[in-house]
Each structure stands twice: as C-alpha cells, then as structure tokens.
Amino acid sequence: MNKSLTIGLTGILVCISGIGFYGTLAHKLEYIPEDQLRHQRKIKRIPEDMTFAGEMVHFKSPDAYLKYYRELKLNTQSNSSTRLLFRNVRIWLPEITRIVEAYGLHDDFKYLAVAESNLSNSVSPKGAAGFWQLTEPTALELGLIVNEEVDERYHPFRATKAACRFFKKSYKVFGNWTSVAASYNRGVGGLQRAFNNQSVNSYYDLALNDETSRYLFRVLAMKDLLNHPAKYGITVLRKQRPKMKLVRVDSSITNLDKFARLHKTDLVTLKEFNPWILGNKLTVSDKKMNFEVIIPLEATRIALKPQVDTNKLLIPDKDVDKLSNIMNGASIGEFEPDAFKNSY
Question: What is d(CA 272, CA 289) in angstroms, rounded to the nearest whole number?
Fold first, then answer.
C-alpha cells in the first residue's frame, strides 16, 4: 500500500514539474530580442551583423529568426551530403566566382547556386535542372541551348552566365540585391505582384510562401557554412582542383570519342566534366553558334584523389574578359577566392 502511494505521489510531482517546465518553455519561445542575442552569443553560430551582397539582413519576427536557424540546422550537419558539397565547391565554385565577379555582381550570388543544388546536376520535380536549377523555358529565354544533343543548363559556366544575366535584369526592376535573390526563387513577376499587393518596400516585410520566405536564409546558411566550416565541427582537407581548359567549338563534331582522344582524355572523362553533352556529337548549325567544352588537363577523373594545392594561376586576371573571349585551348585559371583560402 505504501509503495503504491509513493508511486502515485511521484507521478503527481512529475506532472506538476512538467507543467511548470512547459510554462517556462512557452515563455522562452516568445520573441524577446535580449534573449535571442544571448542565445546567439552562446552558440556562436548566428552572425550578428549579417549581410547579403552588401545589404543588411533583418530579422523582424521570431518566425524569421527560426527559419534561419532551421536552415542552419538542415544544411550544416556533418554527413556524406556535406562532404559531397565541399568536393563540388572545391571543383566548381572558384570559376563560378570568377564569372559572377566578371559580370560586376557581388560574389554572394555564387551561394545561390550552392543553395539551389549543392552544385550537383539534380533535376527538380518541376523540371528545373543543373547547378542553377533552370527550367527549360527560362534557360531558352536567357540564351542557353537546350535540344536533343545538348542541354546547357548542365554547363557549369554557361548556366552561371545565364543566371548572371537574370540577376542584372532583375536589379533593373527591384533596385536592391536582396529582392533580386528572392526573385530568382519566386520569379520577377511573382515577387512584383507580392510587393504591389502588400504595399511594402522591403523583402523582409513581405508575407511570402514558405519556400521563398526561407530562400534567402538558406543562401546565408550556405555562405556561413562554406566560409566557416570549423564553426560547425566540419574539417575540410585542402586539396587541389582538377586543372581544366576551355575549348571553343565553332564547327560540328561528329565523333566525340575522337575529339576526346585528340585532347588527351577519354569520352567518359569528357562527359564527366561536360554533363551538358547528351549525345556523342555536337552540331553547330549557324555561324553565331558555338560551344565551350571543358577539357581536363590531367588524365584523371574528378573522383580521384587530387594532389597538394599549388594555388597556381594559369590565366592572369588581365587576360580574362568575362570569360567570353577565351581563345581555343586557353586554360581556365586555377583561381581560388580569398574567402575560401582557409576553408577547402
């Protein structure tokens, strides 16, 4: 009897303690700026003066704060996906950075490609493809070639140029880079309608669908992860990027295997660096048409272990003009952005 009474009293005490804890927790979930600032300093993960493309990032509600924290939690875990991300970043992001800067854009825009696809050639349920997740109509509108032989949405550099053209056009509409980034997810027309319908001037004051309202926070989470991997307990080994060159093709190639061997590689490796090539030939149908084929300079495949990084610049900056005047066989520079010199 005494034992049953003791168990009953213990259960009552546990219930009372649980109710008290819930009340305390509910209070803590309220948006209290002072508590949030103490929380930020404690975990040392959320930057206090966060910017995107030189513009301040604002947290105007507890929902905004929680969305950013959620993106940090989802995208900064040390797992196979994160390791693959850093591998892709090491190979492709330096040249993407060069293109973004050549178009006169802030280099924060490179993180949109990372947020879109982790720099993998994935395809969304809506048919958006490549690093920049372009749909076919948008790709064609931005000047990319999509047909049965090639799909330039998968070209890491030409798709980047297309995205840069989008950003510059969008800036003429919105006049600020934060809205430009949001429009890449929502569409220029969709974001314009949201601004007009809600009569606000700032992206941070808009009530948007869940995906678009989280989009910028996902970009910022990727930015912080790639610049400060140690903050999230991730160790990234410093390795060399595969050396590459661009060959401009302005006449048809009927045998890609022969073309690959001519450039001291093989068809499998050629297609690994050029997933935009769908078939085994390239047809140039008019004088204005050309392709840029990425050729690995070493007879190794991307997955093989690279050597120690030499940081060698194969093309001086003065010889690079928006990557649009690369001569036949000119080498892509072994370019490493300052922001990543200690990160990968």
Answer: 23
